[in-house]
């Protein structure tokens, strides 16, 4: 996955930086991210809260708040969209490039019926009539396996369960046959059993339509079940990326290894304590010159603290940013 | 929705009843009677008057007679304006006051809401600062100061509008009174709309709507406007109360023949029936307003309909 | 009550230019009302036949002009301002006391008493204060004391609600439990422990109540129901001025503009204070 992005990449982020102006000071959320997602590929993006995963994709969608500054490049299907005017962005946003958010209750408009919120996408992007858009909404709900779909169209978001709402959100994002669906923590607000259902749903949808998915999560377990490739982010940068199986079998970056240890595994022998990472994720405050993970890294050396490791391509089409990989 | 409305209506009727009852007995609590302020009358005539107006009966019987009268739309005779019943007096003046009040409310809403919404959308621009400053002024200046000032400016110095007076069917005479009456609630509504809109614009569901590629105007009109207006809905009943109160002075200054003067004059003259009639009228209006606001809430936020 | 949050709030307040300007204006208006007449040679009652309904000027020492009878408007307006401000302060204190007492009791005692008291507030909130004025007038006639009580009722509902909210949040705290354990009776606890700790935000809302009171008093005086002869408040003067608008516009402009300045300054300052308090709590 090269940072330059080939013409076939559905999404290519190039040296993306996102910072926020807060009370006169600049806070960096995304320090530098370059990645590419090909057609039909599922990329998992993992990291702790505050790693910048969500903000990178908010920048992609043009949904950053007014006090945000983004620089770098975001190319969607070859076209640069970072910083474009809302009018041109709205041509792809919601139709070819869609996003599903973390909390489906607050992410759906409380005073509009489900049917309206679904239909308006088609009315706007395809110029459909409301009647035909509502019919299409019905099939969308059936596609995401929402039971009693006709009844749901007439209901309000608060009348549906969390899992159903998330299905509605997913259905909403698929209405115009997108090339890329960004799923930002789609299961975090849901029960574990419902989580599995949603991941199953995404898997089957992807197989049906060949769409690309960017799956953002703090939970490696969720990502492992769906992604082809995984990019691990820490403090606003990618520290490792590789094919999922390869990453899970043999992580090269100490942070990835620690993350893996934290995923509860029913089949592993019982331990006295659940492992967790020491310390806390670095805030978005300015960092020192060295590797951001050095303070918490069991393999850190003086070189790590003085010199930040660059993200470099390694064998098997993977990338790594570490002075002392495993 | 209907069920919700009926429930609310059922709650409103007892409230009105309590107000009528309390008012009736409060008014009767006044020492002295309605005829004390006139020249001292010989005992016989005084007694006759008392009997004619039913004041010689025990209070509770007067009360029942009064209730019976109300049901038939009869609020009794005015004690002060001897040739008229309260109903007649109200019927004379109500159209004027009604026109004044409804126009003022309509303007406050129709101008206040867009003003507040625009200020929110162009936050921290020159327009926003201007709007916020004007609003601060509008809220602070009472109608009874505003009207003379406006009359001075537009009537006396510029000669654009009549200073006072009333001609049936003339719009010019209403301009200044309506303006003075509508500006304080307009300013408040603008402020509430701006605040509500700013709150809503930060919500996750607005982000979703924008993420669907909908144009900003659609997002504002369809997704943001209704929740943003919830605080405004909450202000509507107080707005009506404020316009009601303001109309008392505005009518007096502008010389409009409305019902406002009856409330104050009636109180000063101890014209029981007139005061009672006015209190009941205004209370019914406020209660009706409260019902309308409840319905509005249910429309703005469907979750309310499912509440107990 | 720690002092550090107060300092923070004060700092936030002074960072707000609008509030600062309002404070300065307010100080100037109060100073003018108190000391202004001393600077002017005219007195309250003298009729200056040579300058009747005059416009303001320096030559004849009538800085705000004169009224129809030749009385100096500068001195009269400032006297009216003193009356309005005095009523504002005293009635404000009454309103504060009422709201504090009601809210603290409702919040602390809780249970059915609280329910009842809140129901009472709900019903009262819907009725415009003018109704009570009307009733008072019917019963007592143009009695200043009675009307003064009604003016003191302005804003007590909001104060009561806020006090109740604050009381509810501190009710469970340890120092209250300690007081209960030490055998203190309910009135004592309310007075010595609850009140001092809820008074912070209440003061802020009191600042917003004062302009409401001044406004209501002016309104009543305008209708002839407020301050009675021989005292005159700004409201009374405005009523006089409105009647003489065409012949002597300054009879309206002097008290009118002063009242507007006073109300706007109080409102802007009160808003700034409330914003500063909100931002402190948000942190």
Please characterize this protein's 3D structure.
The complex is a heterotrimer of chains A (326), B (308) and C (283). With 326 residues, chain A is α/β, with parallel strands linked by helices. Chain A has a domain at 105-175. Chain A is built from 12 helices and 12 strands. Chain A has an 8-stranded mixed sheet with strand order 6-7-8-3-9-10-12-11, with helices on both faces. A 4-stranded antiparallel sheet of chain A has the order 2-1-4-5, covered by helices on one side. In chain A, strand 7, helix 8 (192-209) and strand 8 (212-217) form a beta-alpha-beta unit. In chain A, helix 4 (114-125) crosses helix 5 (130-143), helix 5 (130-143) packs across helix 7 (162-174) and helix 7 (162-174) packs parallel to helix 8. The two termini of chain A are 21 Å apart. With 308 residues, chain B is mostly helical. Chain B has helices at residues 2-28, 43-52, 59-71, 86-121, 126-140, 143-157, 172-201, 204-211, 216-228, 230-254, 260-268, 272-300. Chain B is flat. With 283 residues, chain C is an all-alpha fold. Chain C has a single domain (5-53, 61-282), classed as MetI-like (MetI-like fold, Orthogonal Bundle), CATH 1.10.3720. Chain C has helices at residues 4-14, 17-39, 73-109, 111-126, 129-140, 144-152, 156-170, 174-181, 186-223, 234-243, 250-282. The longest helix of chain C has 38 residues, at 186-223.
Beta content of chain A comes to 15-25%
How many H/I helical runs of chain A? Answer: 12
Judged by helices, strands and strand pairing, the structural class of chain B is: mainly alpha
Shape of chain B: flat
How would you state the average pLDDT of chain B, rounded? 83
Assign the CATH architecture of the domain at 95-258 in chain B: Orthogonal Bundle
Average pLDDT score of chain A:
86
**Overall form of chain A:** globular
Biggest beta-sheet profile of chain A: 8 strands, mixed
Chain pair forming the biggest interface: B-C, 45 and 42 residues
Oligomer: heterotrimer
């Amino acid at each position: 996955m090269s940072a330059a992005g080939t013409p076939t990449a559905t999404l290519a982020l190039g040296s993306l930086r996102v910072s926020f102006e807060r009370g006169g000071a600049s806070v960096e959320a995304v320090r530098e991210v370059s990645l590419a997602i090909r057609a039909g590929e599922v990329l998992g993006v993992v990291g702790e809260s505050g790693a910048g995963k969500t903000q990178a994709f908010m920048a992609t969608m043009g949904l950053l708040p007014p006090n945000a500054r983004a620089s770098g490049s975001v190319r969607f299907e070859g076209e640069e969209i970072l910083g474009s005017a809302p009018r041109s962005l709205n041509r792809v946003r919601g139709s070819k490039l869609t996003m599903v958010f973390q909390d489906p209750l607050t992410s759906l408009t409380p005073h509009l019926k489900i049917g309206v919120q679904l239909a308006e996408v088609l009315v706007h992007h395809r110029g459909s009539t409301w009647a035909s858009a509502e019919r299409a909404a019905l099939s969308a709900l059936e596609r995401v396996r929402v039971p009693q779909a006709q009844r749901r169209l007439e209901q309000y978001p608060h009348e549906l369960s969390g899992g159903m709402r998330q299905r509605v959100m997913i259905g909403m994002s698929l209405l115009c046959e997108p090339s890329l669906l960004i799923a930002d923590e789609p299961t975090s607000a849901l029960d574990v059993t419902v989580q599995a259902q949603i991941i199953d749903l995404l898997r089957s949808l992807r197989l049906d339509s060949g769409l690309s998915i960017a799956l953002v999560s703090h939970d490696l377990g969720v990502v492992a079940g769906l992604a082809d490739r995984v990019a691990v982010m820490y403090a606003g940068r990618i520290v490792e990326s590789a094919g999922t199986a390869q990453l899970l079998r043999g992580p090269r970056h100490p942070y990835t290894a620690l993350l893996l240890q934290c995923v509860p595994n029913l089949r592993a022998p019982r331990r006295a304590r659940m492992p967790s990472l020491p310390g806390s994720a670095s805030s978005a405050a300015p960092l020192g010159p060295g590797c951001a993970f050095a303070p918490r890294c069991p393999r850190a050396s003086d070189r790590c603290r003085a010199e930040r490791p660059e993200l470099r391509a390694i064998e098997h089409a993977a990338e790594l940013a570490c002075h002392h990989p495993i | 929705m209907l069920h919700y409305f009926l429930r609310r209506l059922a709650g409103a009727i007892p409230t009105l009843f309590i107000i009528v009852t309390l008012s009736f007995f409060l008014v009767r609590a006044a020492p002295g009677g309605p005829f004390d302020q006139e020249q001292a009358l010989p005992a016989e005539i005084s007694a006759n008057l008392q009997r004619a107006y039913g004041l010689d009966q025990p209070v509770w019987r007067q009360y029942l007679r009064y209730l019976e009268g109300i049901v038939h739309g009869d609020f009794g005779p005015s004690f002060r304006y001897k040739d008229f019943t309260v109903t007649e007096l109200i019927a004379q003046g109500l159209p004027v006051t009604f026109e004044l009040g409804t126009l003022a409310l309509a303007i406050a809403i129709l101008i206040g809401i867009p003003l507040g919404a625009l200020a929110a959308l162009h936050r921290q621009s020159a327009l926003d600062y201007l709007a916020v400053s004007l609003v601060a002024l509008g809220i602070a200046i009472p109608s009874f100061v505003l009207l003379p000032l406006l009359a001075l400016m537009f009537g006396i110095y510029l000669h654009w509008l009549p200073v006072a007076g009333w001609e049936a069917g003339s719009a010019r005479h209403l301009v200044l009174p309506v303006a003075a009456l509508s500006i304080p609630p307009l300013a408040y509504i603008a402020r509430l709309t701006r605040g509500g809109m700013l709150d809503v614009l930060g919500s996750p569901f607005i982000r979703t709507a924008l993420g669907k590629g909908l144009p900003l105007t659609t997002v504002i009109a369809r997704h943001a406007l209704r929740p943003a207006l919830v605080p405004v809905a909450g202000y509507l009943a107080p707005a009506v109360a404020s316009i009601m109160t303001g109309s008392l002075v505005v009518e007096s200054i502008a010389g409009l023949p409305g019902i406002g003067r009856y409330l104050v004059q009636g109180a000063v003259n101890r014209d029981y029936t007139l005061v009672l009639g006015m209190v009941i009228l205004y209370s019914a209006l406020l209660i009706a307003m409260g019902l309308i606001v409840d319905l509005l809430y249910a429309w703005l936020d469907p979750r309310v309909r499912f509440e107990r | 009550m720690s002092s550090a949050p107060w300092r923070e709030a004060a700092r936030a307040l002074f960072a707000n230019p609008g509030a600062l300007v309002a404070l300065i204006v307010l100080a100037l208006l109060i100073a003018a009302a108190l000391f202004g007449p001393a600077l002017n040679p005219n007195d309250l009652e003298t009729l200056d036949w040579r300058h009747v309904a005059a416009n303001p000027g320096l030559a004849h020492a009538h800085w705000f002009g004169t009224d129809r009878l030749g009385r100096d408007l500068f001195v009269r307006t400032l006297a009216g301002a003193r009356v309005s401000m005095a009523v504002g302060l005293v009635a404000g204190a009454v309103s504060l006391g009422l709201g504090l007492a009601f809210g603290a009791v409702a919040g602390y005692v809780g249970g059915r008493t609280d329910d009842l008291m809140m129901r009472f507030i709900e019903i009262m909130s819907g009725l415009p204060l003018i109704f009570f004025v009307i009733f008072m007038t019917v019963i007592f006639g143009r009695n200043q004391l009675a009307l003064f009580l009604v003016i003191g009722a302005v804003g007590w509902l909001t104060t009561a609600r806020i006090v109740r909210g604050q009381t509810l949040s501190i009710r469970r705290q340890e120092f209250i439990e300690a007081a209960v354990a030490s055998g203190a009776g309910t009135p004592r606890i309310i007075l010595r422990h609850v009140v001092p700790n809820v008074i912070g935000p209440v003061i802020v809302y009191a600042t917003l109540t004062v302009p409401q009171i001044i406004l209501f008093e002016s309104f009543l005086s305008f209708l002839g129901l407020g301050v009675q002869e021989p005292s005159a408040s700004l409201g009374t003067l405005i009523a006089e001025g409105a009647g003489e608008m065409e012949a002597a516009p300054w009879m309206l402009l002097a008290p009118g503009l002063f009242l507007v300045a006073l109300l706007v300054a109080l409102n802007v300052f009160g808003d700034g204070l409330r914003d500063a308090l909100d931002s402190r709590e948000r942190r």
